[in-house]
Amino acid sequence: MARTEEEFTMKEIAVNINGSGDMDVFTVRNTTENRLYFDANGVSRTRNDLNEIITTCGEDGIVYFTNLESQNVIESLSNDIVMDGAITSVAVLNSQSKIIIVSENENCAYAYTLPPNAKMHKLLFRSTCTIRQVICSENLIGIVSDNPTFHVLLAQNTEKVIAVNGHAHNVKSMAIDPLEKYICTSSMDGTVKIFDLDIVQLEAREVASISINFSNIKDERVPLRCSWHPQGHLLAVQSKEGMIKAYQRKTWVPVLTLMVPVGSATPSDIHIVCFSPNGNYLAACTGSKEILVWDLHQTNPTASGENFLKKCVHFSKLSYESLALQWSSTKNTLIVYHAGGKLVLIEGVVPSYLPSPLLLTDVSTTPSVQSAKPILEPDDHESRVEAIKASFGFGSNVENRSESNLQDMSLTSPQSQSPFQPSAITHGPVQLLVWNLLGEIESFSVHLENEDVRDLIKITFVDRSARNVKLPDSYRFTMACLDQDGAFFAAPHRVLDEEYDQDASINHRLQGQDEAKGYICSIVYYHPFHSWANNSSWYHRFSHLEEVECIACSSEFCAVATSLNCLWIFTTSGLEYALIRLSGRIVTMTARGRMLGIFSQSPMDRLEFELLSVRVWSDSCRVQSIAKGIYPSSPHPFDVYGNKEEKEQLRRQRTQYGILEWVGFDENEILYTLDSYCCVQALCASSGWHWIPIGCLGNVMDKSPKDRFGVFSLGVNDDKLYYIPIERGQKAPRLRGKLRPVPSTFALTTAMFPLTKESSTEKSTPYQNLIWQHARMHHRLLSSSDSMSSSICEEEKLAQKQAEMDKALILMMKTACVDENVTRCYDLARCLHLEKSHRIAEKVVNHFGLHQLLKRLEELYLIKFKGSGPVSSGVTDAGAVNLMGSGTAEVPKTYQMSTITRPIVRDRNHEIPQRRNMPTIHAVAPPNPFAKRTVENERKVSNDESPAAGNRTKEHLGLERLALFQSPNCKRMKK
């Protein structure tokens, strides 16, 4: 090979799944019929640059669009065309008004309008067998199926079809002459035939037949695609293993032979060939997963005799077999789509010392020529004058300095964030207004028999025993939230569509006064699931001066944030309950029970949070602020190999901080958040209403930016975060029809921040996040004491959680006693919850003979559970004395006892009065959570409780056995 030391870059872009597929590349043009002449944000382009778009399809039934310039998948255009089953081929018409896709299940070729909002235009062709390829030229559309007969359609009138039958076996591929006079087809019968088309008579006549030799020509994975020269005077055909022949037009005589270089590449069959835009280079994909490029501009194919060319200017190897190959028309790039479902962009495929593969009109001048400016030599006199001006505060130096300061401020200024609904999928073929652990709300359209389109809302519950709900979407809802008691919807402002809004009653209800004519104002709608009244659903229309930006609902209230930075709170019956002015623009919010979490952006673009308590009751304070402050975004991870200046500069860049992606409550009304670094944080009462970082999903912060992935969260329940991993750069998972991916779980009780270490062995005990368990448990204690009612079942569950945590603490105390670390053991004892657990801890300490520590634990027991002071102040430290608190002389303030060891006292004067004849509820001790339940132990306990049992000694159960552990200084005493 010649001078292969030239550097080139290869980049893979994941699009479809593994398997078969096809690709087409086209340059976006500014035409009236072109709907793709928009960027990812939907803003019309006004500049003159041309972007190339790569469209791909595969067995997942999705058509993806990739921008060659940015080398990213265009999310706003992709996932817009989805079909059940595989899409075998795709092609875009030269007018860029339609895209043709082939459905493998239906054996049909459909014409769709280009996205965004792609819709099926018409059915082009239906076949009795599988369609393998569709190809387009200026006026022709070629269709190849598993049949000896192939078809050619006229692009202007697709009703006119030319059926050509000239092969003895199935046709594999087709190539259309640039002049649209000839068509070349390859077949499994081992021949490549050229047909002369007569568009007027709709006929085709065979003019030449070329024999080829392939070892696996009948394999469906071999595309066997030939290529025409851009000027049409040459046809490149795979002749046999490792050989390509170029045939001259009309005579069909080989004038050039290209051979795979021996020793540099593996001799194998050549699957695809493709000429460069100017025809000076020829690229090929081989069966050994290799890419080869030959230089043709030094040869003279029109000379007498046949020329041989064995040297290649490029060689690279892929990981999968190629499915499609094309050159870029604007860059020195070769585009390959292989069976791994990825695009491979080979930049710099032609070395720099060779002529460009592009056309002369496409070759742009170098940036140095375009930006050439006269270079002036520095003048000492002018520099002195500018220095004097700068000393007085004006001049060019001051202006340059101010511009540089503005650039530095732009780097360090925080990034703004648009409002969003948590757990919503608004892009793609399947639009879910909300998807959480309770269910999902899907917005879709149905085509009726009279060609009308009807929008519907479908509410699907995770609980299959619940009945799904289907509602007509007459308001075009774009936001929704789902609760166990009802669903809340919202629609923003939009222009009145006379064709769509045909119902006059709807227009009369939604339209405002004369100043708002021609618009439909924002509206919210609440639909309860279980109500004792028939007319319990309601809607509310806002003024045309404000627009709904975010909503949230719970069993107590419904909240709406508008563009005027106002927070409207409604009851579930539609009553206007409260109106609050926010400090900035809303970003997102969530609600559960009586708690409402609000995240807004201040005028300084700082993300702030506020936790409100909303109670629909006859209280003087309807809305109470629980916590408020600046939300702590996750900074960029620490770079071990970076120097101090780079780290400081990275810390000052606010754009490197994590972006809020999801918020939600759990069953204990604890507020959780998830950012772009997959960092989970929680806000609870036990931490003084400060944010607690719990862990990082998949240790994303420890990975490089290219290896990081995204997360779509569904919610938190039972100390587990349910999520769906997505690819980096995406906002939501890719959904197809009714299929939903199985969510993964992230255990919060075993998580660590910032790095969660996996256990080396399966039998090893997993790490317990005691900090988070303690915070979660005490939040439940505080919330249960403040709530209106507390059931016995909830208290038993809380006691079980406390016992589990005390068990882990006592095990840690036992380890501390073995190591004779008495101070740590004492600190662990101060964190115990139950009185029984404290007594077991005393037995453990007594067993190890730590008498001084035992005396401290006895005094700690009197302070925590008996409410009395220490016997001797010389033993108890200041920390234990502080547990008593500094109360008044009349009523001394004691340490708050556990809810399991003290009666629950609540002030019910402001609540509903109790009944006089209400039966007395006697206090019942909860079951021992430490007891090890076995049949033998239950029989012994029942015998001990009977009168005939006498004074039989009971067997030690649960954590009491910890007191009988073997001491390192003495042996266990037998009874």
From TrEMBL:
Domain WDHD1/CFT4 helical bundle: start-end pairs: 792-861
Domain WDHD1 first WD40, residue spans: 50-343
Annotated WD repeat ranges: 164-198, 273-304
Ranges of biased composition (kind: Basic and acidic residues): 933-943
Gene3D superfamilies per UniProt: YVTN repeat-like/Quinoprotein amine dehydrogenase
Predominant location category: nucleus
Domain WDHD1/CFT4 second beta-propeller: start-end pairs: 419-747
UniProt record, GO biological process: DNA repair; DNA-templated DNA replication; mitotic cell cycle
Pfam families tied to this protein: Ctf4_C (PF20946), Mcl1_mid (PF12341), WD40_WDHD1_1st (PF24817)
Any one of the GO CC terms: nuclear replication fork
TM stretches of this protein: none
Entry keyword annotation includes Nucleus: yes
Name recorded for this polypeptide: Uncharacterized protein AlNc14C195G8551
Lineage summary: Eukaryota, Sar, Stramenopiles, Oomycota, Peronosporomycetes
Organism domain of life: Eukaryota
